[in-house]
Specification:
It is a single chain. 38% of the residues lie in helices and 8% in strands. It is built from 5 helices and 3 strands. Strands 2-1-3 form a 3-stranded parallel β-sheet, with helices on both faces. The longest helix is centred in the last third of the chain and has 16 residues.
Length: 140
């Protein structure tokens, strides 16, 4: 709904979706719990961002907390074509999603090699090009 410009614009009669076990889901759950009972949305937890996205598109939920890269990828960067828009301002803090590679402590050489390779891909623009090609860049 284009009239939704903040979370509070979504009527409490419309449920909110979120991906279970995501940090944003924990923050949303805590936020909803501190609201007066009459002002609480029902939360629909989903197993992944794809399902959460589908439930927004099919109208099951009034909105959903979804990793922006997943939305951009699912819409090929054209949210308006699906009648969607982003609400970035939330009434609670939510950290940006960071991607990490975990290695065993004894794999120091591999960790350094990966760090150097990633930095090289970043420096020459390859990472940005891949993100744009696969619709993983944030919407400006």
């Amino acid at each position: 709904d284009p009239s939704y410009t903040s979370l509070s614009d979504i009527p409490v009669s419309r449920p909110l979706g979120s991906r279970i076990l995501a940090s944003s889901d924990a923050h949303l759950t805590a936020y909803i719990a501190q609201l007066p009972a009459a002002s609480r949305w029902q939360r629909f937890p989903y197993r992944n961002y794809g399902v959460a996205f589908e439930r927004v598109v099919d109208g099951t939920v009034g909105g959903s907390l979804i990793w922006e890269a997943a939305v951009v990828n699912a819409t090929e960067g054209d949210l308006a074509a699906q009648g969607l828009h982003l609400i970035r301002q939330l009434p609670f803090f939510d950290e940006p999603v960071e991607l990490t590679i975990g290695l065993k402590a004894e794999d120091d050489f591999l960790g350094q090699a990966l760090s150097q390779a990633i930095e090289s891909l970043r420096a020459d623009g390859t990472l940005r090009e891949l993100a744009e090609t696969h619709y993983l860049s944030p919407i400006e």
